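Figure 3 (text version): structure tokens given as input.
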């Protein structure tokens, strides 16, 4: 029974070896005297220099040193796993708008670089993943398809597909796959974390099971038996196998979608992007050995730990993948990229993989491994950038970040260069702090002083000819442009690049909107700023002349009030002006779009009008001397127009709403999942509570 416990407790590939892996599978010979003194080992540093490809032997040493360091510092598996995730709930969210014809698509940061979401629309069908619903029979999740009729602003349910949540849970992300004429496939992404349990055997006489490779399907079957109660063991909720499942459904007949292909990857999903029908996944894998004992000090237990580390074959410490539930195969056919300055006595327990999948051919193209940490992922049409910060530097508040560039090729991604900058990429949306324009990468970072006060800096990097180096060619502030980005103690709440300009919102009690002039790559400067009482978390340029913003109104003390949408005129970048604004609700009011920008939808209607929709949950707040009373009003979709774009006399106009629930019919809002909206011609489709509400676009009076 021990075999299954290991499988469920840590990670499937640790007990299922799939040939290859780039190194020998023979059990290493132990030295005559086992060394258990790990005091000379050091955690690998994040280095601003280039990466190098190492052999499987060198990688084995680094990974095993990482395990030894984790034992020395008493870091258990769950702690290590948590350090491998990105800051914020999502690696990167939407910031632009991709549209096709006269309907809105997923709100994305870079046009033609698609991003995953729980709702997708192709102009004919809405594809929606429902959030998991815990019932007496267990967790329940579904995939729903609705047909739309824009002429009547109505939708019809076409099919509902139950998702087996025994092992993988609900669907976290969707992508569409297209052939020459229409949508042919739907990609679903699921993560096993939070939906598995590991069991402790109640009968020690069961003893260990032979160390025999198992298929993922066999492991899932055993997991299902344990959860269902067929296996007589104690079920304990814990962090689970950090796996990712990517499934491709054939939806050419939407009434009967069928699963055509599945690939599973070991590790946790950090980010994904899709260009054309090629999917790119960034995952993090933390190697572990199930029987290692942490927090021990006697010689016998220390020796047992070292024997386990030394005798574990490398393929059990590297991530695998499986196709259609088949045998595990090594994710990295070659070795791994590490810092060129890596030393023999260093180690790091985090393997990042960039995996390329050809969805048209249903094929895993390749996977590139990097032994580093990642806090931000940004993609242009041509390159993928991974950014990470040095955690060791927090002690003296002199942190810095390293960015690695990978080029998209016909055979996956290939490493290009690395560079370092002062500061970190921020707490919220690190992808927005990076932007590729022409031959430069622009990055905005933040450094924190010993009292926590932030200092912000723009960095411009360019690749050095003939070297794997991204060099800093310009910074702001600098000696000739000393003005700070942000007032004292103000942190960054939003960043948006737009060609040769950038917009930065900082906030403590008021909201300065900074406009940066980046026309001269090596001489950036602050062109102008606007200071008003509010803060923005999302900025979207409308051409070069205007900027739409979403955020919160604030009171005189800087406390959050209602949801605020605004329009800024930036034709004169030295004097940005707020054209108009709307505030909805009181303190406590919020919008999902404040935290997940896929909840915003945009549709350009001719040259003169842009339509915008976003969901809101509105509250009325009574503030007394010693109390705040919050009263929920309603939940619904709100609709706006930006008019007058042609003549430069633009205005932001509120045109109406589509209320899904209110305090007149319910005591509390449902909090039922991700609200999304789709705009098609003059029709509006509002996805709320796994249902689709339709309406015509209001006629402005």
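Below: residues designed for each position.
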């Amino acid at each position: 029974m021990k075999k299954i416990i290991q499988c469920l407790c840590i990670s499937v590939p640790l007990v299922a070896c799939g040939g290859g892996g780039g190194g020998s599978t023979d059990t290493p010979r132990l030295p005559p005297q086992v060394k258990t003194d790990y005091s000379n080992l050091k955690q690998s540093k994040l280095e601003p220099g280039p990466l190098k490809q190492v052999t499987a032997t060198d990688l084995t040493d680094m990974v095993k040193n990482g395990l030894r360091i984790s034992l020395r510092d008493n870091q258990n598996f769950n702690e290590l796993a948590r350090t491998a995730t990105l800051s914020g709930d999502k690696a990167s969210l939407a910031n632009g708008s991709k549209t096709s014809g006269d309907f809105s698509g997923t709100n994305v940061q870079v046009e033609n670089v698609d991003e995953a979401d729980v709702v997708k629309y192709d102009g004919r069908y809405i594809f929606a993943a429902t959030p998991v619903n815990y019932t007496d029979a267990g967790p329940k999740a579904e995939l729903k398809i609705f047909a739309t009729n824009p002429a009547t602003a109505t939708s019809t349910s076409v099919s509902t597909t139950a998702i087996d949540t025994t092992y993988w849970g609900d669907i976290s992300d969707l992508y569409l796959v297209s052939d020459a004429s229409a949508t042919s496939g739907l990609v679903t992404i699921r993560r096993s974390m939070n939906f598995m349990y590991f069991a402790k055997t109640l009968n020690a006489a069961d003893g260990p099971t032979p160390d025999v490779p198992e298929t993922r399907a066999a492991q899932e079957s055993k997991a299902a038996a344990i959860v269902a109660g067929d296996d007589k063991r104690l079920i304990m909720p814990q962090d689970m196998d950090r796996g990712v499942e990517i499934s491709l459904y054939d939806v050419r007949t939407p009434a009967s979608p069928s699963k055509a292909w599945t690939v599973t990857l070991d590790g946790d999903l950090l980010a994904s992007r899709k260009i054309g029908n090629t999917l790119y996944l960034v995952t993090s894998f933390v190697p572990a050995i199930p029987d290692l004992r942490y927090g021990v000090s006697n010689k016998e237990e220390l020796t047992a730990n070292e024997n386990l580390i030394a005798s574990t074959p490398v393929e059990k410490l590297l991530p695998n993948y499986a196709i259609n539930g088949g045998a595990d195969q090594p994710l990295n056919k070659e070795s791994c990229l590490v810092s060129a300055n890596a030393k023999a006595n260093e180690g790091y327990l985090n393997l990042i993989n960039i995996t390329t999948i050809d969805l048209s051919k249903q094929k895993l193209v390749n996977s590139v491994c990097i032994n580093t940490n990642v806090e931000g992922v940004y993609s242009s049409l041509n390159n993928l950038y991974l950014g990470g910060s040095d955690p060791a530097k927090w002690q003296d508040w002199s942190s810095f970040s390293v960015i690695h560039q990978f080029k998209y090729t016909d055979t996956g991604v290939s490493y290009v260069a690395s560079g370092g900058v002062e500061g970190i990429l921020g707490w919220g949306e690190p992808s927005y702090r990076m932007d590729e324009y022409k031959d430069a990468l622009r990055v905005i970072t933040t450094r924190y002083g010993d009292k926590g006060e932030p200092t912000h800096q723009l960095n411009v990097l360019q690749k050095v000819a003939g070297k794997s180096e991204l060099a800093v060619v310009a910074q702001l502030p600098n000696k000739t442009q000393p003005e700070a980005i942000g007032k004292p103690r103000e942190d960054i709440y939003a960043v948006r690049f737009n060609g040769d300009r950038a917009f930065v919102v900082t906030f403590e009690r008021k909201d300065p909107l900074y406009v940066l002039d980046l026309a001269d790559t090596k001489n950036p400067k602050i062109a102008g700023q606007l200071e008003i009482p509010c803060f923005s978390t999302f900025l979207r340029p409308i051409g070069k002349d205007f900027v739409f913003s979403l955020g919160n109104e604030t009171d005189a003390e800087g406390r959050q009030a209602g949801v605020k949408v605004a329009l800024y005129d930036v034709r004169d970048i030295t004097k940005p002006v707020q054209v108009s604004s709307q505030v909805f609700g009181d303190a406590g009011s919020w919008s999902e779009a404040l935290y997940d920008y896929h909840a915003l939808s945009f549709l350009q209607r001719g040259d003169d009008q842009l339509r915008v929709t976003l969901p809101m949950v509105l509250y009325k707040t009574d503030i007394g001397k010693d109390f705040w009373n919050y009263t929920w009003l309603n939940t619904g979709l709100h609709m706006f127009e930006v008019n007058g774009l042609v003549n430069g006399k633009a205005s932001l106009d509120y045109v109406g709403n589509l209320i899904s629930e209110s305090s007149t019919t319910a005591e509390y809002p449902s909090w039922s999942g991700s609200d999304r909206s789709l705009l098609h011609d003059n029709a509006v489709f509002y996805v709320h509570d796994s249902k689709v509400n339709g309406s015509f676009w209001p006629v402005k009076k």
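The chain has a mean pLDDT of 82.
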